[in-house]
Design brief:
Blueprint lengths: L13 H26 L9 H4 L2 H23 L5 H31 L11 H25 L5 H38 L8 H25 L9 H8 L4
Helix pairs in contact: 1-3, 1-7, 3-4, 3-6, 3-7, 4-5, 5-6, 6-7
């Protein structure tokens, strides 16, 4: 495969937008930690199920939002790395997301089931969309591993599946952002009750977190879908895809 030089103007604005995205994501994580620590009582495990819940929003934001976004963008942010390495990094990041999500799910189910008066599970729109996003993500990871890493599909099948993989990856991320916003709103209404309408400090913080989620998610989807930011193929990519050694 002949290497194509990347026109410099194609990447115009890419680096500032990536930096802005990372700042938004880092701020989002910090604010969620502040919220859980200062307003929701901090963190515990099964000895205090109410505080165990706080692991749920924190780990979901770190894994299912921040790492998920960076995993999708790895081919664009590390565009000069070898394709094989990028596949391993992409798969590794997404696997770490699954680990964090599983812990977050254990935390929320424990916080419902281990209290003196158990709370029903899986009744809200937040939980339905969230669990659907988790199942889709796990299916995506497994399909991607079997298609692109081991054992790997034949080249025509791999090329046909790639747009599907990309589409459902983005769709799943949108589902995650949607579920996170619903979860924030649900927690605010249940925990603050009438105080939410008074827009106290915690209510403002929750709303700011929601706005940051929208900004971070929207910017991530923009960066992932812009063709001009796509990684150009390199000579060694052809040997990797065809399975031949260099």
């Amino acid at each position: 495969m002949e290497q194509v030089e990347e026109p410099s103007n194609f990447l115009e604005g890419f680096k500032p937008l990536i930096i802005l995205m990372q700042i938004l994501g880092g701020t989002l994580i910090i604010l969620v930690i502040i919220w859980c620590s200062n307003y929701r009582g901090g963190f515990s495990w099964r000895s205090n199920p109410m505080l165990e819940f706080n692991w749920h929003p924190m780990l979901m934001i770190i894994g299912f939002v921040f790492l998920y976004a960076n995993g999708m963008l790895i081919y664009r942010t590390q565009r000069n790395a070898r394709k094989r390495r990028l596949k391993l990094i992409h798969g590794g990041i997404m696997l770490s997301v699954i680990v964090l999500v599983v812990i977050a799910l254990v935390a929320v189910f424990d916080s419902h089931n281990l209290v003196k008066e158990p709370i029903p599970n899986m009744y809200s729109l937040h939980s339905w969309i969230g669990l659907t996003s988790v199942i889709l993500f796990c299916c995506q990871w497994l399909a991607g591993f079997l298609s692109f890493l081991y054992p790997g599909l034949q080249v025509p099948l791999r090329a046909s599946y790639m747009p599907i993989h990309v589409y459902f990856g983005i769709a799943g991320f949108v589902g995650v952002i949607t579920s996170s916003l619903l979860g924030l709103n649900e927690k605010a209404i249940f925990s603050l009750k009438n105080n939410y309408s008074k827009l106290g400090n915690e209510a403002v913080l929750i709303n700011v977190i929601g706005l940051l989620l929208i900004l971070f998610g929207g910017l991530t989807v923009y960066l992932v879908t812009q063709e001009r930011y796509k990684r150009f193929s390199k000579p060694e990519d052809e040997s990797l895809v065809s399975g031949t050694s260099q």
